[in-house]
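# nightly structure sweep
# worker-07 picked up a monomer target from the shared queue
# config: single-sequence mode, recycle default, output format = structure tokens
# input follows
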Amino acid sequence: MKKAKRWLACVLCLMMAAAMLTGCNGSKESKKNSDLDPKAVVLTVGEEKVPLQVAYFVLKWQQASYQSMATAVYGEEWYNQDLEGNGETFLDYIKSTVMDSLTDMYLCRQQAESLGVALSEEEQKNIDDAVKGYMKANSKDAQEAMMADEATVRTVLENYTLYSKVYNQVVKDADTSVSEEEARQGTYSWIYQDFTTTDEEGNQTEYTDAQKEKYYQTFENIAQAAKDSGDFDQAASDGGYEPSEHDYTIVSGGEDEEGLYVDINNIARGLQVGEVSGLIPVDGGLALIHLDTDNNEEATADMRQTMAQKKQTDFFEQWIVPLREQAAAKITDSLWNQIGFEKPIAAVTE
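# output follows
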């Protein structure tokens, strides 16, 4: 999990640099943050102290990015959901990831000069324009809800831009070679039935055995119809399902697989092109697949690029780990623990 968080923190840094924070279009969180000191130190990275205002702004940007989709899936209290079943809520996960990204951001800023990295005049102008655009696009209430002022927004943009430049400087020496066979992708069409329902508060209820049996029979009928007709899509449609396509790496372990895809991809590797699987019980539901191809050239080219990028992030991770250990970053938990997602943030994060 920690490795996954560090990878997500790296992605967050690069996304923030690319997004340039075009701005928020308003906020439902209109209450002033008068009980929090924006100048208080929330993170120490080596000798450098990070004020709460910077961390708070980044966290609220992340909240705005997640909340619309997460609310639709998990309900209004999406941030309190324990997604991994390990006692860590979505809120805990995001806050931890933000701290990881801020730590790496400041470490990269500290190393920029020694690597010959600096902001160009054009980059500085783009940042200045982005800051002006952000402040103009937001009401005072929205700015207060995000703890945003010109200095904070500029600091965040400058630091994330520097992070991106340091990252590119470091990974230029990475070996990113990936063979076509290593990345070769197959594609299957599949249907899936979830065996749980989620109410507006995010509470999940599992189907009864009788309900599950009904779906098992439906999937059996679809599988048989697909085998008889040779048309999986039509058989699924007749049974009330719209198939989706999913690409998988032919070589087992050739990609980071998660959740139900681990079992389903392994089943796909044992099929011939055009073959329909048996019913696939997976954690939380039931799946059925049809192997469309074992050599999707377009998907393979995309995977080669993805795997090359993964090699870059792994190379960067090896470079920055010693810096993290030396810096021994410290979070002011008593301050950071006061911040939650109870009040929605309506923001544009593209």
